[in-house]
Amino acid sequence: MKMLNVDLLILGFCFGLATQYGAFGKNQYQIQNGPCSYTFLLPEQDNCQSTYNYPDQKDGPMDDESVQRLEQLEMGMENNTQWLLKLENYIQDSMKQDMLQVQQAAVHNHTATMIEIGANLLSQTAEQTRKLTDVEVQVIHHTTRLERQLLENSLSTNNLEKQLIVQSNEINKVNDKNSLLEKKLLEMEQQRQVELKTFQEEKEQLQSLILRQTAIIGELEQQLLKVSSNNSVLHQQQQELLDTVNSLINTLSTGSVREPKIAMMQDTPTTYTDCAAVYKSGNVKSGVYTLTIPNTTAEVKAFCDMETEGGGWTVLQKRFEGRVDFHRTWQEYKKGFGEPSGEYWLGNEFVSRLTSQQTYKLRIQLSDWEGNSAFSQYDQFSLDGEAQNYRFVLATKCLLIKFGLSLAISKNN
């Protein structure tokens, strides 16, 4: 606004000078300064006329009037020059002030603009700072959560490592125990092999001895048949000979393969259906006897217990070492399996036919490796036929603590 006022002042001044020249008809001087041109009117002396008539120059010397005229012109020119210098200084001073004002206005406007821009930048900076603060808070929160998770994972890893160490120690202990057990098992197996070899040798010796004794018995029987003519005397001598042979066999069997005492089968023409009948006939030693299946001529060999509860017990099952596999088929359990002198099963068909003839008792004797034993006795026992899947029929159980060996039945008296 100040710049505009200066321009209007200069233009007005120029316009006034031009108007004055038009009014008085004085001489004009024009000065160009930047975009503006300045026109100045030179003042004249008061006694000067408005027009001058210059005479033609002559070759002769100048008169006094010309000299005076020339001096007046020089003085007027000097005055005009001083006035122009003053005017120029005034214009320069005015222009300096106007330029200072313009510069101050420009600086002020520029400063206001810079302040506004700075304010905008500060607000934007504050907004960006707030956003950065929010992001920093989120990053710190996320970092804290990750650190917490890493700590938890580290604790879990430490716990797992501890558990793995404990389990590794336990596995090492178990491996050591397994190694020790394997070593002991190997030693026991070697000892068992040695014992089996010894038992096999003893068995072979006993078999050869039994063969020799059997041959001797055959010879003695032939001699007895030839020599004896009296049946009663022959029977008595034969019975004594059989007792002697049975005693010899029992004596030889005492140090053998830990099998129960086995007596020779009673070599008489009489048939027995169970061990109770064998016991009643006078055979009171436990051993293997030949029994006849009821209502048939078929024979089976069974172990008779002549010592437990008065004797006469027909042993259906005997199992004490586990050498015989009892995981058998239906037909094997029907017919029986194993050796009566060792571990065996008598056979479902024989027991079913036997118990269908009369009433029998059932006695179950059990014992463990620590020497604890017990038995369970039933007053009535029978076994149905194959059509009924050999169903057990029991009644009146009586349980007592006593040494037990096997499963046996006896005739009810």
Automatic annotation (TrEMBL):
Q: Which key words tag this protein in UniProt?
A: Angiogenesis, Coiled coil, Disulfide bond, Glycoprotein, Secreted, Signal
**Which InterPro entries did the record assign?**
ANG-1/2/4 (IPR057439), FIB_ANG-like (IPR037579), Fibrinogen-like_C (IPR036056), Fibrinogen_a/b/g_C_1 (IPR014716), Fibrinogen_a/b/g_C_dom (IPR002181)
**Domain called Fibrinogen C-terminal: residue spans:** 266-413
Q: Name one Pfam family in it.
A: Fibrinogen_C
Classification via PROSITE patterns: FIBRINOGEN_C_2
The record ties this protein, via NCBIfam families, to: GGGWT_bact
Tell me the leader sequence span: 1-18
Any coiled-coil ranges, and where?
157-191
Q: Where in the cell is it found?
A: Secreted
Q: Which domain of life is it from?
A: Eukaryota
The record lists the organism as: Ilyodon furcidens (goldbreast splitfin)
According to UniProt, the name of this protein is Fibrinogen C-terminal domain-containing protein
